[in-house]
Amino acid sequence: MSFYTLIPKKDHILLLDQRLLPAKTHYLKVRTYRDAYDVIKKMAVRGAPAIGVTAAFGVWLGARAIKTNDRRKYLAGLEKVCKHIINARPTAHNLSWAVNRMLAVARSGTSAPLEITGKLYREAVHIYHEDIDANKRMGDYGERLIKSGWTVLTHCNAGALATAGYGTALGVLRSAKDAGKKIKVFADETRPFLQGARLTAWELQQDGFDVTLITDNMAGWMMKQGLINACIVGADRIAANGDTANKVGTYGVALLARMHNLPFYVAAPSSTFDPTIPSGDGIIIEERPQKEVVTIAGKQIAPMGIKVRNPAFDVTPAKYITAIITERGVIIPPYKKGIKDLLG
Ligand code: MRU
Question: Is ligand 1 within 6 A of the CB of residue 236?
Fold first, then answer.
């Protein structure tokens, strides 16, 4: 791959600005925790695991700027930093998971502030590498479910760009290809932010995949004609019963897959599971700005003043999911027990 989602440096991070892809490969300098909040909120970085990793480095950047030797004051300052970053986006569980993990490292032991800041950097780097390892393990488990000769539909971008590297759903496809399987991919364009057209099509094309871009409303017709053998998507938050929040449109793809008797797979690391939420009903769905719907590349495409809805995610009920691929193995229904066992 010719890009990195995020590059840790000594006193900042470099972050690939995904809003400019595929036209431009430009790295933003993220120097403060407020920068980290902004790049997440404004979707320069997106995708649940990539958001989590960025947030972890954001906590470290916030810690660096706390100028006190008093551990109690330092931790109080850090809590404010964490609270701020967690509020950047509401749906991806990896965000609060990563921030809380960083906070736990800071609170543990009796270290002085300077030492804690060092520990926080090492933890963020650890979360970064752990994510890539998890994706590769997910790839190993998941590729066994994919048959050579298949065409697989994916929605949104659950690739290297959405993670620290390799990808979840696209990682499974990468592993299948590396195992010598002949795989074709159909990428939904994923309105309104076009993660499929701009990001998935771009990263798979660079990787030498046979990838075909379709608009979201074409998926059913492709299935009807027998052109798709399976679907695979990522996840932003998975409830205790397996209900899965992912990019809006995923629910429709899952229903279409069921109607056409196709397997519908979700690939996600354990950091995406939220056992505190019993079902998808409890998942907060982010509503994004209206302008994302009424403009394309900055150009107004709908009447001025039109009423608009823009939920960024939807929830696919667990009953439509054939299996959930994780770095610890593949979970099949009943999900409640499988998820409980997975998380220990
Ligand atoms: O709004 P986004 O682009 O952050 O949404 C991303 C998705 O919905 C992805 O499918 C999900 O985060 C999984 S990424 C491995």
Answer: yes
Going from the Cα of 238 to the center of ligand 1, the distance in angstroms, rounded, reads: 13
Q: Tell me the CA–centroid distance for residue 334 and ligand 1, in Å.
A: 25
Per-residue pLDDT of the chain (344 residues; tens, 9 = 90+): 789 999 999 999 999 999 999 999 999 999 999 999 999 999 999 999 999 999 999 999 999 999 999 999 999 999 999 999 999 999 999 999 999 999 999 999 999 999 999 999 999 999 999 999 999 999 999 999 999 999 999 999 999 999 999 999 999 999 999 999 999 999 999 999 999 999 999 999 999 999 999 999 999 999 999 999 999 999 999 999 999 999 999 999 999 999 999 999 999 999 999 999 999 999 999 999 999 999 998 999 999 999 999 999 999 999 999 999 999 999 999 999 999 999 99
Q: Measuring CA to CA, how many Å separate 184 from each of 116, 163, 283?
A: 47, 22, 33
Separation of alpha carbons 108 and 116, rounded Å: 9
Instruction: Report the first-to-last Cα separation within the chain, whole angstroms.
Output: 35
Is there an atom of ligand 1 within 6 Å of 81 CB?
Answer: no
Q: Tell me which of 236, 293, 324 to substitute to probe ligand 1's pocket, judged by most ligand atoms within 8 Å of the beta carbon.
A: 236
The CA dihedral of 183, 268, 232, 24, to the nearest 10 degrees, is -70
| Closest alpha carbon to 155 in 28, 72, 249 | 249
SS3 breakdown of the chain: % helix, strand, coil, rounded to 5? 45, 15, 35
Structural domains in the chain, CATH included, are 6-136 (1.20.120.420), 140-343 (3.40.50.10470)
Is the distance from CB of 256 to CB of 316 less than 8 angstroms? no
**Is the Cβ atom of 48 under 6 angstroms away from ligand 1?**
yes
Identify whether 236 is a catalytic site residue.
Answer: yes
**Does any ligand 1 atom lie closer than 6 A to the CB of residue 45?**
no
CA of 159 to the centre of ligand 1 (A): 9
Q: How far is CA 302 from CA 103, 290, 291, 295, in A?
A: 45, 11, 10, 7
